[in-house]
From TrEMBL:
5-methyltetrahydropteroyltri-L-glutamate binds at residues 15-18, 114, 119, 516-517, 562, 606. The lineage of its organism: Bacteria, Bacillati, Bacillota, Bacilli, Bacillales. It comes from the Bacteria. Its EC number is 2.1.1.14. The active site is at 696 (proton donor). This is 5-methyltetrahydropteroyltriglutamate--homocysteine methyltransferase. Its cofactor is Zn(2+). Residues 427-750 form the Cobalamin-independent methionine synthase MetE C-terminal/archaeal domain. It comes from Paenibacillus contaminans. It catalyses: 5-methyltetrahydropteroyltri-L-glutamate + L-homocysteine = tetrahydropteroyltri-L-glutamate + L-methionine. PANTHER family: 5-METHYLTETRAHYDROPTEROYLTRIGLUTAMATE--HOMOCYSTEINE METHYLTRANSFERASE (PTHR30519). GO terms for molecular function: 5-methyltetrahydropteroyltriglutamate-homocysteine S-methyltransferase activity; zinc ion binding.
Length: 756
């Protein structure tokens, strides 16, 4: 049985590429040095795969920033404004990725979006009037040759034509259809070049095929590939899909002359059923995604063997593959010295997944795979003895009733009670929670982690910061204050570290975008709260002012979405456990006289299933109740806020209202406020605070500009429902612009109030 990888992580085992790139951006190393680091990493990663007997090793999965941006550049999709800078190709590439400000001009970066249902982000290719799509770059060919020179045969990978055209953005009046011909020619050219270089296979990634497809989409897909595949020559073409099943185009994939089809059998719920129902063409190779590219648990060999058996009856030629690129898992367990072997044996990061492929290959070559030692060693990992479940948690979840998910009294009654209690002015002003994490804040945390200061010293520093922050908020006249979140490294990691049941890693970084990596915690066991996590800081902040201070928590759905989840229980069950733990914190805050509590669900929207038909049943039906469970126990007087990043939730607006918070703030300054129309259309009850200024730049908005923003909102929203706040993320800003901007915000709110 042969094995294939869809892609390998590229930032390096210790984020070497990130650090080299950042040095290059600062001018500390030359472009040649950056290229050397990149080449070293590529070769090292190929060798690792070769050593583990991977038969289909990907090349061109390397990227300095993002694979879709590479694809756009390869095909000359470089908007005029970047070309006009007159930079060299790599500089132009980075200008598209990060924006450019310098002697040659001033341009913003391309838009960035979430890559399907992952926490990875891609740069949105922009096809403008001046664009001619054609094969213009050589990266794909260069990396194939680079591997070849190192005696490594690779399968070059490229984002496919359909996914490229579907994810790109077009100038007014243009659409994907207008570029079918050019695009197909460009891909055909790639095939011609690969023929000349003697490549055996090419992998074209088409994850867009696992989403809901229209008839027009199928026409577009067929048109593109009828032309592209006519240029195959001796190169075999693998249509690689992942993140779901291909129920809308299974037959099209079968009937087009692809040589291989890559199907995800882990996230693709209907994948097996499709293969069974429609069969699998004898002249194609089935690349079966069985090793999870998205999670860090060991592969369950029993499940894999069972699946392979079923597939063997259907497909003549079978290759074992990862379910998606390993880009979405960390590099290696070798970097986790602090984790015991007893724990590590349950995990497989990218490198350990290579070992799994090697083992599966061995096992499958055996006449009786189930009798092999490797199989047995794996089997014991899944015998249910991994950890002792928490009986209290299990008992509590077992006794939950509908009443636990419903806050009483109803919103309208609460709103009146809270208005009478808080007596806030119209258009109350607040912020989303964090304040600048300046160098001293980070140094304090770092010193504490290192052990060079005591817990008391560490805390005292945070108390001083809080006092300073409260005094300033009071002074500039904000209505609802926050403590500033100085104690938090990250809104998920902080809670993960304080809750029981999570595991933390030292170096398990996963690329989020460009040079930015995240280190998601691992849900290991049943989640519970053994001690208050935020009460002390919040209560201290409250003691310093007569104004209300918001307690600040992260919600269960966001904590779960930004962690590696368990595979032995459902996401729903994990979410409920986390919700119960956060609920205890909510009740503790309330008992300590924190009258307003914000429960952030920054990541609620991003894990919506890729197909709309799955939204309710598979996600919203538990995610929204999990949120309600967190706050359903508070008094009517206690005001519950929530916050969501991005404002693109028009399509789930009723579900958001159903979270039954009293106030929702959201990131909105960079959007067209279309969300507010959706809010009006559905009779949204929750009070709203759309961000009035963008905090992603150091620019200080003027009072007039903020007033205009507020008037625009008031055109659409009842003044009695509107809150005034900036977008989220003040922690990433500098001190000066933060306070200057907030002063303007308070002033603008005051002036607009007068006109109501
Ligand atoms: N309360 C968090 C903050 O202000 C929210 C972060 C977020 O929206 N991602 O930083
Ligand atoms: Zn946010």
């Amino acid at each position: 049985m042969k094995t294939s990888l869809i892609g390998y992580p590229r930032v390096g085992s210790l984020r070497e590429l990130k650090f080299a790139s950042e040095k290059y951006f600062k001018g500390d190393i030359t472009i040649d040095e950056l290229h050397r680091t990149a080449a070293d990493l590529r070769i090292r990663h190929w060798r690792r795969q070769q050593e583990n007997g991977i038969d289909f090793i990907p090349s061109n999965d390397f990227s300095f920033y993002d694979g879709l941006l590479d694809t756009a550049c390869l095909f000359n999709i470089i908007p005029e404004r970047y070309q006009a800078l007159g930079l060299n190709p790599l500089e132009t590439y980075f200008a598209m990725a990060r924006g450019y400000q310098g002697e040659q001009g001033d341009v913003k970066a391309l838009a960035m979006k979430k890559w399907f249902n992952t926490n990875y982000h891609y740069m949105v290719p922009e096809v403008d009037d001046s664009t001619t799509i054609r094969l213009a770059g050589t990266k794909l060919l260069d990396e194939f040759l680079e591997a070849k020179q190192n005696n490594i045969t690779t399968k070059p990978v490229l984002i496919g034509a359909f996914t490229l055209l579907k994810l790109a953005k077009y100038t007014e009046g243009k659409q994907a259809d207008d570029f079918v011909h050019e695009t197909a020619e460009a891909y055909a050219n790639v095939l011609t070049r690969l023929n000349e270089l003697g490549a055996e296979w090419i992998q074209l990634d088409e994850p867009k095929l696992v989403t809901d497809l229209t008839k027009e989409d199928l026409v577009l897909f067929t048109k593109l590939y009828s032309r592209i595949l006519s240029a195959k020559g001796n190169v075999k073409v693998l249509a690689q899909t992942y993140f779901g099943d291909v129920r809308d185009c299974y037959q099209e994939l079968q009937s087009l002359p692809f040589d291989g089809i890559g199907i995800d059998f882990l996230e693709g719920k209907q994948s097996l059923e499709l293969v069974r129902k429609y069969g699998f063409s004898d002249d194609k190779v089935l690349f079966a995604g069985v090793v999870n590219g998205k999670n860090i648990w060991r592969n369950n060999y029993h499940n894999t063997l069972t699946l392979v058996q079923k597939l063997n009856g259907q497909a003549k030629q079978l290759v074992l593959s990862s379910s998606c690129s390993l880009l979405h898992v960390p590099y290696s367990l070798q970097n986790e010295a602090a984790l015991s072997d007893g724990i590590k044996r349950y995990f497989a990061f990218a490198e350990e997944k290579l070992h799994e492929f090697a083992e599966l290959k061995k096992i499958l070559s055996h006449a009786d795979p189930y009798s092999t030692e490797l199989y047995r060693q794996n089997e014991v990992l899944f015998d249910g003895t991994r950890f002792a479940g928490n009986e209290t948690v299990q008992a509590r979840t077992a006794t939950l009733t509908d009443a636990d998910f419903k806050r009483l009294p109803a919103f309208v009654e609460r709103e009146a009670i809270q208005n009478a209690k808080f007596k806030l002015p119209p258009l109350p002003t607040t912020t989303i929670g964090s304040f600048p994490q300046t160098a001293d804040v980070r140094a304090n945390r770092f010193s504490f982690k290192k052990g060079s200061i005591t817990a008391e010293q560490y805390k005292q520093f945070n108390f001083d910061k809080i006092a300073e922050c409260i005094a300033l908020q009071d002074e500039i006249g904000l209505d609802v204050l926050v403590h500033g979140e100085y104690e938090r490294n990250d809104m998920v990691e902080y809670f993960g570290e304080s809750l029981d049941g999570f595991i933390f890693t030292e170096n398990a970084w996963v690329q989020s975008y460009g040079t930015r990596c995240v280190k998601p915690p691992i849900v290991w066991g049943d989640i519970s709260r053994s001690r208050p996590m935020t009460v002390e800081y919040s209560a201290y902040a409250k003691s310093l002012t007569s104004k209300p201070v918001k307690g600040m928590l992260t919600g269960p759905v966001t904590i779960l979405n930004w962690s590696f989840p368990r595979e032995d229980i459902s996401l729903k069950d994990s979410a409920i456990q986390i919700a119960l733990a956060i609920r205890e914190e909510v009740l503790d805050l309330e008992a300590n006289h924190i009258e307003i509590i914000q429960i952030d669900e920054a990541a609620l929207r991003e894990k919506l299933p890729l197909r709309q038909s799955d939204w309710q049943a598979e996600y919203l039906s538990w995610a929204i109740p999990a949120f309600r469970l967190v706050h359903s126990g508070v008094q009517a007087e206690t005001q519950i806020h929530t916050h969501m990043c991005y404002s693109q939730f028009s399509d789930i607006i009723r579900d958001i209202d159903d979270m039954d918070a009293d106030v929702i703030t959201f990131e909105a300054s960079r959007s067209d406020l279309a969300i507010i129309d959706a809010i009006n259309a559905c009779g949204f009850q929750t009070e709203v605070g759309p961000g009035v200024y963008d905090i992603h730049s150091p620019r200080i908005p003027s009072v007039d500009e903020l007033k205009q923003g507020l008037f625009r909102m008031l055109d659409k929203i009842d003044g009695a429902k509107l809150w005034v706040n900036p977008d989220c993320g003040l922690k990433t800003r500098g001190v000066t612009e933060t306070w200057a901007s907030l002063r303007h915000l308070v002033q603008a709110a005051k002036e607009v109030r007068e006109t109501l």
